[in-house]
Design goal:
alpha/beta; Rossmann fold; 5-stranded mixed β-sheet; globular
Length: 174
């Protein structure tokens, strides 16, 4: 008999950034501050729901923050909340607008490293990977935040801004 072969199971993740909030519309950095969707964000979530209506998923998950959970509820319905899907904690930069940041802080944000008094990107990576490692194969709909999606895209050699209520699909072996 030959050696046993490991066969990977593929998971397909539909990553949804929550709809707009008053803070995102004002250009404020919003990490763990729990703000609700704005009227425009609620409409974005409903429009997203129309796009998702014909789809099926093996699991539907959401960050525990209101803006993601509200997007999930309006776009899909019931979703399982998970704290590991939260946005990065911006620390001392929380609530600030881009034009209020120092040049050094802007560079840190672009590089996605070194948030003063905030969460280390290595810690964000660890908690997001913990969530992903617990998922089985199949199709999963995940309502989360721009920083979480950006982290996963960067690991695939892609880095871009993530607009509100957008969907990014990625595959991974589990």
């Amino acid at each position: 008999m030959g050696a046993a072969r490991m066969v990977g199971v593929r998971a397909r993740l539909w990553l949804v950034r929550h709809g707009a909030t008053a803070w995102s519309e004002a250009g404020r950095l919003t990490g763990w501050t729990d703000v609700p969707l704005s009227p425009a964000g609620r409409e974005q979530a409903r429009a997203l729901g129309r796009r998702l209506a014909a789809r099926s998923f093996d699991g539907v998950w959401t960050s525990d923050l209101t803006r993601a959970a509200e997007t999930a509820g309006l776009a899909w319905g019931e979703a399982i909340p998970d704290r590991r899907l939260r946005e990065v904690d911006f620390g001392a930069l929380e609530g600030m607008r881009w034009e209020e940041l120092s040049a050094e802080d802007r560079e840190r944000l672009i590089a996605f490293e070194g948030l003063p008094g905030g969460e280390r990107v290595a810690d964000l990576r660890r908690r997001v990977r913990g969530f992903l490692d617990a998922l089985g194969g199949g199709r999963h709909l995940v309502f989360t935040h721009g920083g979480v999606i950006r982290l996963l895209l960067r690991e695939r050699g892609c880095d871009r801004a993530i607009p509100p209520a957008s969907v990014t699909v990625v595959s991974r072996e589990v």
